[in-house]
Predict the structure.
Amino acid sequence: MDSRAQTPQAGIFALGTSSHAYLEFDRVGRADANELVSRLAGLREPRTTIGGVNLVIGFRPELWRDTLGAAAPPDLTGFAEAIVGSDGFTMPATQHDAVLWLSGSAYDVIFDVAREAIAALDGVASVAGEVSSWPYRHDRDLTGFIDGSENPSLALAPEVALVPPGAPGGGGSVLLLQQWAHRVQEWESLSVQQQADVIGRTKPDSIELEQKPETSHVARTDQDEFGEIFRRNMPYGTVTDHGTMFVGFASEQGPLQRMLESMAGLDGPRDELTRYSTPLTGAYYFVPSLSALTAYAPEEPS
């Protein structure tokens, strides 16, 4: 057996990178799904000492599993329908055929590799969405709070993020990708204590509040209740228009879907954070293991 059979795509766990880009693609017309996967699998990561780029490649679950017949969790589905809360709050469904997440040490290299990737897909797929992002004050999002406080350590993250060995799609991961735009004026009109009540944690040091409101973000996304995920969120945008790219990995779809439904208020109060941050996109992708992906790559010239 290929020694990489259960090896994940390395970029999932590549913390500390300072520049990111998320490209979502749709097939052009009746372009062959195999050709789309082959061209994405054939992309090469630059490996110089200071110019390396991590590539994470994922596909709409139905395209990877049903169209190609490749292994993936049988119950995994794309984000086909919007999630609508009892008060009309909506998380939109903007599912696309493929995603390419690039991360590296500097944006110039990300920029060049992204352009090369788009050119490599010419005639097969077109860019349906593009977002660039970067870290803010080391580990904070643009609300000023630390993001990912409940993330598992890197030693434990594979158990949370990866489909177990032996299961369909073993070594792969379920990715939820969402773009959330911050409502800056409303958020910044709150006092620090009011913001802490919305999040459920203190702002300076991310300590969970002993008496957190039921509507707080921490309460509505309690991983002890819904299941663990591995978050790689990043800020995006400009001074006047910005927010958070939610990048969540899990071994199965259930924890991610349950958290979204809880945030929208399908089973209780709506997450208070959703009154200050608006979801613009929503898609699920299957990120296959390294060997499952490279099996579709064209042979390199000798």
About this structure: DSSP finds ten helices and twelve strands in the chain.
